[in-house]
Specification:
Layout (H helix, E strand, L loop, with lengths): L1 H18 L8 H8 L3 H4 L1 H23 L2 H21 L3 H15 L3 H11 L2 H30 L5 H21 L15 H7 L2 H29 L9 H8 L9 H8 L1 H21 L3 H29 L4 H22 L5 H22 L11
Length: 384
Amino acid sequence: MKPKRMAAALIFTGIFIASNLYTMLPLQAQIAELYHLSDSQASLSSSMFIFPYAIGLFFFGMLADKLPHKKVLLTGMASLAVVTVLVGLMPTYWLFIVLRALQGILAASFAPTAFAYSFEHFHGKTQAFVIAMINTGFLIAGIFGQMIAVELARFGSYRSVFFGFFILYGICFLFMKQSLVPSKPKPFQTLFSLSPILSFFQFRPLQKLYGIAFFLLFTVMMFYGSFEWMIARGEIDIPFSLQSFRMIGLVGIIPAFFAGPLQQRFGAPFVLGFGLLTLTIGFSLPLLALHTWTLLIASILMIASTSITIPMVILLVGQFSQHSRASAVSIYSFTLLTGASIGSIAASLIPLPTILLTTAILFMGLAFISFRMGGGIKKSTLSK
C-alpha cells in the first residue's frame, strides 16, 4: 500500500505544480484591465514564472543530487506555499511580478527531485508507470491549470487563484509528508558543481536524448499555436471551440497508462522510437487532406506520442546518468521548456502545412536515432 500512496502523492502534487505554468493565461486580459497594462506587460504574469522555473530546474537538480530527496521536496513545497499566498497579497503589479519569479524558482524544486526520488524508490514497470503518470499530470495541467484558475477567479479576482493554490499546496505538503518514505542519507559534498553538467553535454547518448526532448513540447506548442492563428485569420472553421479541440486531444494520454508494461516488454529505446513515429503518422494525415477531422486525429496522435515519449526519455536519461540523475533530469526539463518557449514563438511565423511536413520528417529521423540507441544502454553509462 505504501508504494501506491507514494506514487499518488507525487502524481497529485505534480499536477498542481505544473498547473501554475498555465493559471495566468486565461486571466491576462483581467490583469491588463485592472492595472491598465498593455498586452505584452500583462503576459509577464506568465513568462516571469516560466523562465525562472526553467532556471530553477538547474539549481534544484544539483541540490537533489546532494541532499535527501524527501527533505528537498518538503522544504520546497513549504516555501512555495508561503510565497504563493504572498503573491496574492502584493499591492502593485510589479511587486506581483517579482514574487511570481520567486514562485517559479521554488516550483522547480519538484520535478527533478520527484524523478530522482522515483528512480531511488520504484523499480521495473512500477518505476516506468510512476514517471509516466507524473508526466501525464504535467500534460493534464495544461488544460486543468486554466480551468481551475477561471473557477477560483470567480470568487473575487486573480488574487483568489493564489489563495486557492496556497491551500492546495498545503494539502500537497501534508500528503507527501505522510506518504513518502525518507530518502537514503548522502555523504556531504560540495552542493553546487558544474562538472556533472558539463560532462552531460559531452556524453553522446545524453546529447541525443536532450536533442529529442527539445522537439517534444516544441512541436505541441507550435502545432496548437499555428492552428489558433489559422482560426484567427479565418483560414479554417471548426465546429467547436479551440479549448474543446485541445480537450479532445487529451484522449491521447491513454498510452501513458501502459508505459510500464511496454517498457518492460520492448525496452525504452524501442517504445521511444515507436512513439516518435506515431507523431509522424498523425501529421501525415492532414498533409493528405487538411481539414478539421484530420487535424483532430493529428492532435490526438501528437498527445499520444508526447505522453509515451517523455517518460521514455526520462527513463533513458536516468539509465545513462546513474550517479547524477537529478542534475541530468533538470537539464532535460530545461531543454523541454526551452523547446516549448521557442515553439510558441515559431507558431506565429510558420504556416501550419509547413509545420506538419517538416515535423513529420524530423520525427522520422529522431525515431531512427532512438532505435539505434537500444544496443548502447548496457555498454555505456555516465560515471562521475
